[in-house]
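Whether sequence alone determines local backbone shape is best considered at the level of individual chains. In the encoding step, the backbone of a single protein was reduced to a row of integers, each denoting a local shape. For completeness, the protein is quoted in full, as a sequence line and a line of structure tokens.
***
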Amino acid sequence: MPTRSNIVVFAASNSTKSINRRLALHAARILRDEFMAPVEIEVLDLNDYEMPIYSPEREAQGIPQLAHDFYDKLGAADGVIISFAEYNGAYSAAFKNIFDWSSRIKMKIFQERPVMLMATSMGGRGGQNVLAAAMGGFPHFGANITSNFSFGPFNEHFDTQTDQLKTPELALELREAIAAFRDALPASA
């Protein structure tokens, strides 16, 4: 019987109505259901990892347990799917704070795991700025980036009734990104 890969999926946003969460979950469902990948999917909510704003002075008092918990979730995963919200051209404050705290445990927070990066937004650029920042920076933090995908405007290309992309070209592009991610996962036994 093949072993199942543990995939951690999250939106880099603390919005309870996150469009990036919808995109991340859509990608995870395609991986599991259409690609028939033997995966266990664990969805993280950044609201479960809310901590004081990082500062060196606070770090001197100790790294919060929630940062250790987040770091451990990434370490236990065989792969990670992230979809980024773009706030003023950068990461959301919620994600950046968790990222900053976790990187104080060990800088390579992704622990050499395969990582698929995505972004979407209500605007036409589809979170390209934040995606470019992650593409450029995350390898220094131990991310084995397998693929990336972004699009916008969200409402023009994503059917919120069925929770899936409705633009065929984008749906194909997403499936190609998912295939590259799947191929980088540990081989099933």
